[in-house]
Amino acid sequence: MSQTKPTTPTNDTVTNNTVKNDIIKHDTLFTTPLDKAARFSFDEQVVACFPDMIRRSVPGYGQVLAMLPIFARRHCKYRQQDSNGQRVSRVYDLGCSLGAASMALAGEFEPQDLQIKAIDISPAMTTEASALLTENYPAHNIEVITADIRDVEFEQCDMVILNLTLQFLPAADRVAVLEKIYAALSEGGILVLTEKTHAFDEQYDAWLVERYYDFKRANGYTEMEISGKRNALENVLITDTLDEHHTRLAQVGFERHLTWFQFLNFISIVAFK
């Protein structure tokens, strides 16, 4: 598989490369008190400040993205065909938001190597993602789709990226999504699953949560912003324990899966078909 010279994106370069420099917006969504009934949604306001929000709220996000093309070079083996009958590796970026994972891959591979399908339920996200991907990688085969991943019938693929997405689905729907992913992956393909988690031990979990809030404080968030976002995400973002993730992966058929990355209460797992 041909590829460009490898690079190692940092937290800043990965998130900033997803938007034009003149429209990067500081995350100020929770600088004023909100109605207690208000819930977090991926609307135009979130889209406008999303790169800054991710950079300051998700520890290790840049490192996770930087590893995706490294994984892809090992596991994407031209097992599918594009519409012209050419051998490609098909990759799904599920819950793609502004397409950062798709860009991480496109930046390391030649246009003919990958067929990327980036899917998100938010029209605001997919509209901006489509514009950004077209502008930055016009020659690459990247299709941006507005859809609920629970309703999508996946084609055979070599790699599925599920970054910070499963946690927004109802717990009862998570097994079914993973079953579809497992069925779609070709032998030798991989799933990369990145999630916020909680620990089973309450004391340990409390320590992790407080250190996570320290991380956000160090990145400039105020107590009002931290508590406001926490309240807005209640019953919207529902975490699992690390063991629950591994148990679920085994349940749907993955015989091998390992935690390759952890930063406080954020983890990333690679599961092998």
UniProtKB/TrEMBL annotation:
Catalytic activity: prephenate + S-adenosyl-L-methionine = carboxy-S-adenosyl-L-methionine + 3-phenylpyruvate + H2O
List of residues binding S-adenosyl-L-methionine: Y61, G95, C96, S97, D148, I149, N163, R230
Alphabetical keyword list: Methyltransferase, S-adenosyl-L-methionine, Transferase
InterPro entries reported for this sequence: CmoA (IPR005271), Methyltransf_25 (IPR041698), SAM-dependent_MTases_sf (IPR029063)
Protein family per UniProt: Belongs to the class I-like SAM-binding methyltransferase superfamily. Cx-SAM synthase family.
Function: Catalyzes the conversion of S-adenosyl-L-methionine (SAM) to carboxy-S-adenosyl-L-methionine (Cx-SAM).
Summary of subunit composition and partner proteins: Homodimer.
Name of the protein: Carboxy-S-adenosyl-L-methionine synthase
Gene: cmoA
